[in-house]
Amino acid sequence: MRKILFLFFIICQGGLFAQKVTISGYVEDAETGERLISATVYNKNNKGACTANGYGFFSMAIPANEPYHLNISYILQM
C-alpha cells in the first residue's frame, strides 16, 4: 500500500512542473490599427505557433517557467 501511495505522490508532483499559462491578444497593424486576420504568431523559444482568427485574435499556451519571444508574420492578400 505504501508503494502505491508513494507512486501516486510522484505522479501528482509531476503535474506541478508542467504548468502552463495562456498568452492571448489581438494582432493589429501598427500604422492603421487594422486587425490582421490569419496572422501567424510564433513562440521562438519553444517552437510553438498559432494563427489569428477572423477577428485577429490569437491564444497560445506556453510553459509557465520559461521565457518567451513572439514573432508575428502576416502576408497581405489582395
Describe this structure in words.
The chain has 78 residues and is α+β, with helices and mostly antiparallel strands. Helix content is 21%, strand content 33%. It has 1 helix and 5 strands. A hairpin with a 4-residue loop joins strand 2 and strand 3 (48-51).
Summarize the structure.
With 78 residues, the chain is an alpha+beta fold.
Shape: elongated
Average pLDDT, rounded to a whole number, is 78
Physical arrangement of strands within the biggest beta sheet: 3-2-5
Order of helices and strands: HEEEEE
Strand content: 25-35%
Uncertain runs: 1-14
Task: Count helical runs.
Answer: 1
Kindly state the number of beta strands.
5
Roughly how much helix do the residues carry, as a percent range? 10-25%
The biggest beta sheet reads: 3 strands, antiparallel
| Computed structural class | alpha+beta
Rg calculated over all Cα atoms:
19 Å
Kindly, what is the distance between the CA atoms of the first and last residues, rounded to a whole number of angstroms? Answer: 67 Å
Supply database-style keywords.
single chain; alpha+beta; 3-stranded antiparallel sheet; two-stranded antiparallel ribbon; 1 helix; disordered N terminus
Topology:
Blueprint (H helix, E strand, L loop, with lengths): L1 H16 L2 E7 L13 E4 L4 E4 L5 E7 L6 E4 L5
Antiparallel strand pairs: 1-4, 2-3, 2-5
